[in-house]
């Protein structure tokens, strides 16, 4: 059957057959880099449009519908506008850090992309500590946010950045514990192994109720980690105007904006990989006919479908819930989510040791 | 004129005995407004923060002062009513109503029954529209965007009804001394009935979306507690005072027009927090619907305006009238020297008194709470500044 795996294998073989190993590696890197940048551009455009359309649908409006067919080119036009706008640097700002911050946020988002398997055999770097790498690199973006808030020389930005710091550091614990529970179940940190372990069924269904709890906590925690409503305290527009990126304009603002959406995509991709089987098709027990039909759907579509379902979920939260207060946000994590996820991890370990999962 | 440096210095003064005015040196002073998404107008709040905790709030007014009271002194008794639409623009009808009542009191003019009913109907529709906008904006302040659009969906219907009868959607200028300017549009009754039918179900939808939401309840319960004694001493009126257990509904205490003939309840909550103020307004929506339901089929026949002279002259003396706007008690005080224009006019706007309680009830709260408090105070800045 046609698969992306064949294409990637073919390209790799051709490169290594034609050039010497060093040259081939460099060429591979260049191709991957171009692909990642292309993916970023497309993802940014698609997700921003999707958010606006989802919001419009929920708010009984039409959303963008003028530029291009059904408003599809609206985000492209917006990007063009942002590129042409002047990138202001406020007086009294720390110019170096102010200009560096958006890039750090962006680069952190780019780096997490590496171990994600987009389809069967379509993965940039199948590192053996893949999941650990993801949790480690995703914490780097908070440095960029703190830097932006501090360097802007604006009190709103500073408050937003401090909130964001407290929030991301807290919620990483819950997200991490949820990730660990899947690591315990599958027995590996490597992304490809975790996906392979879900061949007979997704962990969400196989791990009984504790896996579902872990999934719910994961979704809550990553919503907070990506600074999305109802946890968007870092940029709470009714309190802090725009939080840490109040002073940013033009392309520097666009980088923050893009990084937010890329981060959503990445955390949803990780959620889909860990809990919903990544690119694995949906298989139900011994329904051979059903399973075969499911196998005919390309693996990339499975992956994107699951990811976009989770993205839709997170967008749904944003347009439904009010925002939490900063102390409520932290007490939710430290008083409820963290103890629950710790206990849940114990349960999952028990399930894994006793082999009770399906 | 305050300058930025003076504001910051004034905020840093420490009271000698370390009372509630004491401000630490580590305090952060931020200016919320005059251009800020949460102030819904040009309100300027100078907030002294300790971390995220509010130590002190100084509201600075005057950014939208148009000296309406002074302007009114050079306008005739027919003309000055139109200016008052621009004060609390969400209660434009009710402002006009208060002024018309005061002039009628001076002229000792009897308003025809038809005009009285139409006025009350318009007042209650305005109240629904105003509370709708407040509900949407309040939810938006707390970070939920979608309710704003839902609120506007229904509010537009009221605006359409107003447009048909009054010719305007926001500043209607429909009430004139002696009655209303025109008779109601032939479609009016049918459209209002359609709206009431549609709207009754929507209130439950609002409860599902916002009132029952656990995050919303956590954000508003126990926040910005205003005791009954404080509510009275700050002169708070309307839903703000009724949320603290003070019975102050002018429609009940000093009934005007046909309010003593319709059955409706004065909503009183005793908790005094933001959630109580929220509940008062949500329940008032239902009461307004009740009043409209009772009156819409019982508009008596007859004149819509009493016969008046072309130029109105109030006798020498002082006249006061009060009405219940969507925000509280709106008072009009006219001093007449017997001429065609008022000698002095003073408006008692509910927003100003309600704003004065802001500093008291938000000390010790977080910045996030400030939005919940300001949302339930339902401030309209042109009403405060005039």
UniProtKB/TrEMBL annotation, chain B:
Its EC number is 7.1.1.-. It is found in: Cell membrane. It is a peripheral membrane protein. It holds the Pfam family Complex1_49kDa. Keywords: Cell membrane, Membrane, NAD, Oxidoreductase, Quinone, Translocase, Transport. The keyword Translocase applies. Residues 7-17 have a biased composition (Polar residues). It catalyses: a quinone + NADH + 5 H(+)(in) = a quinol + NAD(+) + 4 H(+)(out). The keyword Ribonucleoprotein does not apply. Residues 1-20 are annotated as: Disordered. GO terms for molecular function: oxidoreductase activity. Residues 141-386 form the NADH-quinone oxidoreductase subunit D domain. It is an enzyme of class 7 (translocase). InterPro entries: NADH_Q_OxRdtase_suD, NDH1_su_D/H, NiFe-Hase_large. NDH-1 is composed of 14 different subunits. Subunits NuoB, C, D, E, F, and G constitute the peripheral sector of the complex. NDH-1 shuttles electrons from NADH, via FMN and iron-sulfur (Fe-S) centers, to quinones in the respiratory chain. The immediate electron acceptor for the enzyme in this species is believed to be a menaquinone. Couples the redox reaction to proton translocation (for every two electrons transferred, four hydrogen ions are translocated across the cytoplasmic membrane), and thus conserves the redox energy in a proton gradient. HAMAP family: NDH1_NuoD. Belongs to the complex I 49 kDa subunit family. This is NADH-quinone oxidoreductase subunit D. It comes from Niastella soli. The gene is nuoD.
